[in-house]
Amino acid sequence: MNGKRLYIPYGTEQEYESLEVPNLIVNGTLRVRGTLTAKHIQGKGAIRGENIRFETMQIGLVDAEQLSGRELLADQVLCSACYVSDRIIAKDYIQAYELETDSLACCLSSLKSCKAEQIIVLKSKKRGVLRLAAAAWLQTVRGKLAWKRQQSQGRRGKQADPAPDLAVIQQVLDYLEKSRLSGQPEISGEERRAA
């Protein structure tokens, strides 16, 4: 089917061999045996397919052999290979054998191989995908602020403790050993301050 938009209402199930459409709204269930290509995919339903290509996707459940796109926001993601250039936000669960993305935010995951610049694991709470995205963004901002704080403290001259002078320590130990062997009393605290 080639058209401007395809809408699958709640409670219905549609099946296609392959599908190419600019905008796809899925509130029911969509099954595609071949390749699904869409610029924008959204809805609260489920998509099951072999190969799904998209620009942006915000969906309830996606189950595919291969996912590729720019941005994926979903409640549950189940796939063998997932290649998303910008970010993946999985509200409930993500399972993949191979995953590549810039940013991954999820509550629960089962990943065999994961290549991501940034991984954010959040506590499982009852919240929508957009609130999860906001929480992931806040976590990123907090991390960046903490990193900048550490860097600025390092530049202000907060130095590590200098290494102790081993020659001075050895002289003190030698003096203490001599005084113990010769029977002379050790130097008291007042005598040390005077010296």
Strand and helix order: EEEEEHHH
How much helix, percentage-wise, in residues? 25-40%
Q: What summary fits the major beta sheet?
A: 5 strands, parallel
Question: Looking at the structure, what is the overall shape?
Answer: rod-shaped
| Quaternary assembly | single chain
- Beta strands, count: 5
Separation, N- and C-terminal Cα atoms = 95 Å
pLDDT < 50 stretches: none
Number of helices: 3
Q: State the secondary-structure class.
A: alpha/beta
- Average pLDDT figure: 79
Indicate the proportion of strand residues. Answer: over 45%
What value does the Rg take, in angstroms?
31 Å
Describe this structure in words.
The protein is α/β, with parallel strands linked by helices. The chain is built from three helices and five strands, in the order E-E-E-E-E-H-H-H. Strands 1, 2, 3, 4 and 5 form a five-stranded parallel sheet that branches. The longest helix has 27 residues. It is rod-shaped and about 100 Å long. The mean pLDDT is 79.
Could you give a quick summary of the protein structure above?
This protein has about 200 residues and is of the alpha/beta class. It has helices spanning about 130-155, 165-180, 190-195, and strands spanning about 5-10, 15, 20-25, 30-40, 45-120.
Notable traits:
about 200 residues; alpha/beta; 5-stranded parallel sheet; 3 helices; rod-shaped
List the helices and strands and how they pair.
Elements: E1 5-8, E2 13-16, E3 19-26, E4 29-42, E5 46-121, H1 129-155, H2 166-182, H3 189-194
Parallel strand pairs: 1-3, 2-4, 3-4, 4-5
